Amino acid sequence: MNIINWSQSIMKRLRWYDIKLVQISTVFAILALITLWPAFLTAVQKVEWYWYLILAVIFGIPIAKRMFWDK
Q1: CA separation for the pair 19, 49 (Å, rounded)
Q2: Mean pLDDT score, 35-53
Q3: Is the pTM of this model over 0.85?
């Protein structure tokens, strides 16, 4: 079993709130990384705000497409 099949089998067992908990824990992990590693904070602050917006839209399009337009 390759890693893709393994991860898909695990995702089938998760509920919506489990995925939300993973998202929340990721946010806190990034905040901890920013707090503990000043070089990471500096790197994050040097990036212009619109790059984050562009990346959010690019990564959000496939999810929105799958949710609303794929049957």
Answers
A1: 26
A2: 92
A3: no
Rounded to whole angstroms, the Cα distance separating 62 from 3 reads: 21
DSSP state of 71: -
Our CA angle for 32, 23, 49, nearest 5°, is 70
Handedness of CA 6, 9, 13, 18 (dihedral sign): positive
Three-state SS string over 10-38 comes to HHHHCCHHHHHHHHHHHHHHHHHHHHHCH
The angle, 0 to 180 degrees and rounded to 10, between the axes of the packed helices 16-36 and 38-46 is: 110
For the chain, domain boundaries: 3-68
Residue 70's H or E segment, with its range, is: none
What single DSSP character describes residue 69?
T
